[in-house]
Design a protein that fits this description.
It contains 10 helices and 4 strands; from the N terminus they run E-E-H-H-H-H-H-H-H-E-E-H-H-H. With about 280 residues, the chain is mainly α. The chain has 2 domains: about 210 residues, Rhomboid-like (Rhomboid-like fold, Up-down Bundle); about 50 residues, no CATH class. A two-stranded antiparallel sheet has the order 1-2. Strand 3 and strand 4 form a beta hairpin.
Length: about 280
């Protein structure tokens, strides 16, 4: 990342934040595990890759819905894995630093799911082959890139290997145009449709999901509903208690609302205090 201090411009590397580190560890573990498995048992590696990769026809015709998530931890080559993890580190840490791990993980997952949905739907609409598999974390990373372009629109990105600086908002705009054009071209081995899905769902997530994340809002809603439910139960129990006391010929006002007997000093009879 490029930062400016007075008249000096410096390049700095971001720290490894918790969620980014966790995602890199999972993707790296799958990549190297499959690499070693391919050396020792190639048939098993191929079978596992086929089971986890996203194949639209397998999801629609055979119900392999887990592929909507699992395809994101597979990478076809070292270059594929390396640059995906590099982008996840360079851009993901910035998002996690300003919004927190929960928000970042939900954003990444939204991109993964968005990329999967695009990859499943568009081939059946005539754009692509539903029998071709998709792998890689790129859809999630493109969602992160979209969020970076929104949150840090004026930040400048160096277009490595070219010594060219470009603002993040223009970089994302160019990226969208490239992916739109490439998705209409012949299949070149890159899942441009999944990239578009990641960009689209990343935009929707940033624009419509609350600052603390969708999961946080759901948990808050759950606790609010639970509290409301228990409050209604207490009110209903209180009404039943009042009806019962009237049937017994006693005045419910002699008792507290929480259905407990009042302290002995508040009693108006001459029997003294409570007895066990």
């Amino acid at each position: 990342m490029r930062t400016t201090q007075g008249s000096q411009q410096t390049l700095s590397l971001p720290p490894f934040t918790p969620a980014v580190t966790w995602l890199i560890a999972i993707n790296s573990a799958f990549y190297f595990a499959l690499l070693l498995l391919g050396m020792s048992a190639p048939g098993s590696a191929i079978a596992l890759d086929r089971a986890l990769a996203l194949v639209p026809s397998a999801v629609i015709m055979h119900g392999h819905v887990w592929q909507i998530i699992t395809y994101s931890v597979l990478h076809g080559s070292f270059i594929h894995w390396f640059f995906n993890m590099l982008a996840l580190w360079m851009f993901g840490t910035q998002i996690e630093s300003v919004r927190g791990p929960r928000y970042f993980l939900e954003l990444f997952l939204a991109g993964v799911i968005g990329g999967a949905l695009f990859s499943i739907a568009l081939p059946y609409a005539g754009l692509g082959d539903p029998n071709v598999g998709t792998i890689g974390a790129s859809a999630g990373i493109y969602a992160v890139l979209m969020a970076f372009g929104i949150f840090f629109a004026e930040s400048e990105i160096m277009m490595i290997p070219l010594p060219l600086l470009i603002k993040a908002k223009y970089f994302i705009a160019i990226l969208i145009v490239i992916e739109l054009v490439m998705s209409l071209q012949e299949h070149d081995g890159v899942a441009h449709i999944a990239h578009l899905g990641g960009l689209a769902f990343g935009y929707l997530f940033v624009k419509f999901v609350p600052r603390r994340g969708f999961g946080f809002e759901m948990s808050e809603g759950y606790f609010a509903f639970r509290n409301f439910f228990y409050k209604m139960k207490r009110q209903r129990a209180s009404k039943k208690f009042q009806v019962y006391m009237r049937k017994q010929g006693q005045n419910p006002q002699d008792f507290h609302d929480d259905s407990k007997f009042p302290p002995p000093d508040d009693k108006k009879d001459d029997r003294g205090g409570w007895v066990n």
